[in-house]
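Reopening this ticket.

The earlier resolution said the output was attached, but the attachment link was broken on my side. Pasting everything inline this time so it's all in one place.
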Amino acid sequence: MEFRRDKILERIHNCTPETYRFIDEWLDESLYITARTSGSTGAPKAIRLLKADMVTSAISTNRFFNITDKSSMLCPLSADYIAGKMMIVRAMLSGAQLWIEKPGNTPVCQEYGNIDLIAVVPSQVQHLLDNQRILKRLKHVLIGGAAVPRELSHRITASGVNAYVSYGMTETCSHVALRRIGESSDEIYEAMPDISFITDSRGCLIVNSENRSFHSLTTNDIVRLIDDRHFVWIGRFDNVINSGGIKVYPEEIEKQIQRLIPEDTEYYISKCRDDKWGEVPVLVLSKEVENAKKMLEDIRTIVKSKAERPAGIIVRNIEYTSTGKIIRQQFI
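Inline output:
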């Protein structure tokens, strides 16, 4: 497929320096582009992606959301990362109009008319939900980069907007599965058309595709596999807590205790060493809270098993990746 810079820029508006750099890289003679990982499981790193894989991914997404040359899209994400790059590729392939905004927590900062697809991270969704004028003009909202908190999911469902949570990574050129918010309480992800799934001996997801260069990619995401096209995400293998021989998943505990954490307090479950059990869960909070002892007692009461009961509370400054994922500390 032939691309010309002047034709591309007729349909991509408000370009940032990052956008121009990516378009120029896309148009060079190399078969690859360079992308940066978010750094959620280690230091951010640069990786090479095959342009042909990005085309395959973009075509699949455009078909799913029915993006054509009559469509309008909005991208308030940096083109330094895969989510922003892929919105540009989707626009180039479909001929859709694409408006670029600098990343921030208040997207849709000007009037664009009706938007067929906007790509955002969870921290940007709150602003959309708080502005009915904006919300009613959005046909589809694609959310990625970090987990969507349960309370935010409830608000999205109540709003009636068509919102999808993506599952994917830089190495897969954005998402390989989508989950429509509000469609199922089981939070089931469905594979994109050219993707299928199996799991390895750890219970971690393996992404298979005959049409992409990676063919088979093993992840560190523990899932409950429903069939070769559907799964429920449980947590990261890297975060598993081995407490007395029982595997405990921090992300599962976080879902259970969310309603007991003050709304203005960030939190996550980590692990620390224990002489009796080897490892035990601990609750990490972004700041001191009132009645912390009572809150911990309540949390220990509502979790499903004894092994999931947090042994204590640690107050720490909580850091995030550029896409809004918590950078988890472990106290081993």
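Reporter confirms the inline version is readable. The mean pLDDT is 93. The CA atoms of residues 226 and 232 lie 8 Å apart.
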